[in-house]
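Lecture 7 notes: from sequence to structure.
We start with the chain below.
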Amino acid sequence: MPGIFEKVLAREKQKRQQGARGHENHQGHSTGITSMELSISDDKTKELLTEVMIELLRTKRDLIRDILMEALEEVGLANAIAEGCKNEFVSEEEVFSLLDRAAE
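Predicted structure tokens for the same chain:
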């Protein structure tokens, strides 16, 4: 039995084929952009894609969490660097002194 992903691909292929046959301009050329727009707005396709996303979130939870955590760390680091650029320079000795006092 095909999975959700295979169903989505098969449905999209079918929609493109139908669109290519049914949407030809006056010169006989396929208007692929129009058929793509129609298939994207199709409710059933949206429903299937939603199911695929939900399944990915369920099965790849750890991977997604790791990716999000890494992205948040990068944003935090970028914000810290930007904030540090605005402030006065602090020597390494001052930083370690503050860390030592906080550890006590």
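Points to note: The helical segments are 4-22, 32-40, 43-59, 61-86, 92-103. Residues 23-31 have pLDDT under 50 and may be disordered.
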